[in-house]
Amino acid sequence: MNVISFQEFLEFFNFPFVWYALIICVLTALCAALLGVTLVLKRFSFIGDGLSHVAFGGQAVAAVVAVLIGHAFDFNDTFIVLPITVIAAILLLKTGGRKTKLNGDATLALISVSSLALGYLIYSFSDAGNLAGDVCTTLFGSSSILMVNETDLYTCIGMSIAVILVYILFYNKIFGVTFDETFAKATGVKTEAYNLLIAVVIAFIIVLAMNLVGSLLISALVIFPALSAMRVFKSFKLVVLCSAVVSVVCSVLGVLLSIWLSTPVGSTIVAIDLIAFLAFTLAGKLRARA
Amino acid sequence: MELLKCHDLSLGYEGKAVAEHISFTLSEGEYLCIVGENGSGKSTLVKTLLKLQPPLSGSIERLLPKDSAIGYLPQQTPVQKDFPATVEEIVRSGFLARSRLRPFYTKEERALAEEKMERLGITHLKKRCYRELSGGQQQRVLLARALCATGNLLLLDEPVAGLDPKVTAEMYELIAALNREDGLTVIMVSHDISAVLEYATHILHVLHGSAFFGTTEEYRASEVGKLFARGECA
C-alpha cells in the first residue's frame, strides 16, 4: 500500500480525469442500485453474475477486434460488449422463466463458465502484449479508473440517462411485475415485455459497471445496496431510494479511498459496500428489537 | 347479463388433458364456486379463465366491459413473504393494467384505491409493511388490489387457505357482502364444502373426464354433490 499525503490527495482534484472518474462512479452506482432491488426481489441475483461473465467474453472479443483493426481509429468496446450482453440477458430470462430441458440455474452456470473460459481463450489469441494485465483489468476493474477518457465519460452519461429515464417511467410497472407477476399478467399487463425491458436494462448496467468494478465484482455493486436497504426500510419506494443513496455514497468513498491508499478501485468499493451491509443489518436488528 | 361463457373446455398441458367437457355460463351478480379434488384441474381452469394459458379445445367468451379485468386474488407466493412494500403501494398496483403506458397513477385512481381500502377496513394499515401483517390482513390487501383491477368480476383462488376459523368466517362474510351489496360477480375456488353450500348460487364440480355444473340446489340433489357433501371423494 502506498499512502499519499493529504496535500497530494487534494492536488488530484486539479486533474479533470479525477472528476470524470467520480461522475462515472456516481452514475454507475445509481443505475446499479435502482435495478438491484428488482433483481434481488425477483430472485434474479445470479443472472447479474452470469451476465457479467458474458460481458467478460464480450470484452475479450472486443480486444481481439481492436488488435485486428490495429487501433486505426478511436474504437469503443461498448459497441461490441453491449449487444452480446443484451442478447445473453434475453436468452437467460427466457430459459430462466420457463420449464425447459435445461433448468434455469444449470443454464446459467453453463453460460457463465463457458464465457469465462472462451473469453480467456480469445484473449490469448489477441496477442495484445499485456495479457495478464488486460484480463485482470476486465475481471477486477481498471486498476486505475483514472485512465478513463472523454469518450468513456460520454458513453457512460448517455447510458445512465437512458437507464434512469426508463426506470422512472416504468417504476410502477416494474413494481407490479416484481411483486406479483401472475396477478399483473392476469389483469392484462404485458409482463413479457416488461421482463424483457428489465433484462435489457440489466445488460446495460453490467456493461456500465465493467469499467468501474470489473466483471467479477459487478454482482456486489448490484446486490449489496439493495440488500442493505431491505434490512431497514419497509416500503418499496424507500428501499429503492435508500439503496440508491447507499450505493452512490459507498462508491464515491471507494474511489476517494482508492486514490488515497492507492488500492484497486473495484475491490475498495465492494469492501465498503460490504461494511455498509453489515452496518444496516445491525441497524435492522436493533430496530426490530426496539 | 352474461359475463363469462365456457363451452366444452378441455384443459391441460402439452396436449395432455387434465379436465374435459367443462361448460358453464356466469351471469352478473352470481356467486360461482369451483370445487374438485386436488389435481382435478381447478388451478388449470383458473389459469385458463385468466388467459394465462390457452385451453386445449373449446371456447371461452369473456364479456366484461372494456377497461375492466378479472379481479384476481391469487394464492400467496414465497416471493411476497419478505417483500418490502406498503399496503398502499400494493393496492394501487391493481390499476397497472388499465394505465397502459401512462407512467404514474392519476388522482382519480389514488382516490379509488383509498375507497377500496376503506371498504375492506384496512385504511389504518395503509403505510404499514405488507410482510408484517397477519394472514387475514394480507388477504384483505390483495382483495383491495383485485377490487382496483375490476368493477365486475372477482376470481378468488382459495381465499381462506391458512387462515384461522374466526378470520375465515370474516373473510367469507366480506366476500358475500361484496357479492350482495356491491353487485360483484364472484368465482371462488374452494375446498370448504360447508361454505360453498352456504354462499354459492352456482357450483362447478370439476371431475376427471367430466364436470358438474348447476345451481346449489341442483348440486345438493345430485349424486356427486351428495357424495362430496359427506366428505367422500367422487
List the helices and strands and how they pair.
The complex is a heterodimer of chains A (290) and B (234).
Chain A: H1 6-11, H2 16-41, H3 45-68, H4 78-97, H5 104-126, H6 131-140, H7 150-169, H8 171-179, H9 181-186, H10 191-213, H11 218-232, H12 236-261, H13 265-289
Chain B: E1 2-13, E2 16-27, E3 31-35, H1 42-49, E4 57-62, E5 70-73, H2 78-81, H3 87-92, H4 96-99, H5 107-119, H6 135-149, E6 153-157, H7 165-180, E7 185-189, H8 193-199, E8 202-207, E9 210-215, H9 216-221, H10 223-229
Parallel strand pairs in B: 3-7, 3-8, 5-6, 6-7
Antiparallel strand pairs in B: 1-2, 1-4, 8-9
Helix pairs in contact in B: 5-6
Describe the structure concisely.
The complex is a heterodimer of chains A (290) and B (234). Chain A contains 13 helices and no strands.
Question: How far apart lie the N and C ends of chain B?
Answer: 33 Å
Which percent range describes the beta-strand content of chain B? 25-35%
As residue ranges, the low-confidence spans of chain A are none
CATH 4th-level superfamily of chain A? ABC transporter involved in vitamin B12 uptake, BtuC
Largest sheet of chain B: 6 strands, mixed
- The percent of residues in helical segments of chain A reads over 70%
Radius of gyration of chain A: 19 Å
Chain-averaged pLDDT of chain B:
88
Tell me the number of helical segments of chain B per DSSP (H or I, 4 or more residues long).
Answer: 10
What average pLDDT do the residues of chain A reach?
84
The ordered H/E elements of chain B are EEEHEEHHHHHEHEHEEHH
Labels describing this entry:
heterodimer; A: 290 residues; mainly alpha; ABC transporter involved in vitamin B12 uptake, BtuC; 13 helices; 80% helix; 0% strand; globular; B: 234 residues; alpha/beta; Rossmann fold; 2 domains; six-stranded mixed β-sheet; three-stranded antiparallel β-sheet; 37% helix
